[in-house]
Amino acid sequence: MKLETRTLILISVAVVINIVGGQTVHLLKLPVYLDSIGTMLVGVLAGPLPGGVAGLLTNIIWAIIINPIAAAFAPVACVIGLLSGLLARAGWFTTWWQAAIAGAIIAIPSTMIGVPIIVYLFGGVTGGGPDFAAAYMLAVGSSLLKSVGLTNLGVNVIDKVVTALIVWNITSRLPLRLTTKFGFFVHAKA
Fold this sequence. Notes:
Elements: H1 5-28, H2 37-46, H3 48-65, H4 74-89, H5 96-122, H6 131-139, H7 144-173, H8 176-179, H9 183-189
């Protein structure tokens, strides 16, 4: 796969957006993630493969410079980028309500991939905002897998819908002179 210079620049910007968003949420202990806005943006503008690359690079770079835990979630980030591109290709980012549905769709495989990582690699605790809700469910008798799974599904749906709406808002306001340079995006919007 050969990436154009504009796509490489977009991926670089996306990595920064993701890390800043994710680190801000982590430091504030908010019950969302907001670490995939850039990944989803790349997927929508440049396609599934560049979106997947943006997700992988984000988590690898984030793990090296700030938060080693991020590396474990690189497969989740990759899937978010891939699915964003595929859903954009299918026209699911043309209206706000379609983008919201796309976000909810992306949340399901994100949860399915992320929960085993949280449970089996980190014992159910990653230090993020959703840990409190999972701990509460565990304390009232739910299994670890169920507690982490339900908590993360709820958080992922909210997070990915908000992220998809942010990405839709950005892409719907980009000037035509910029979006026409991304052939994937032009085709996906048709």
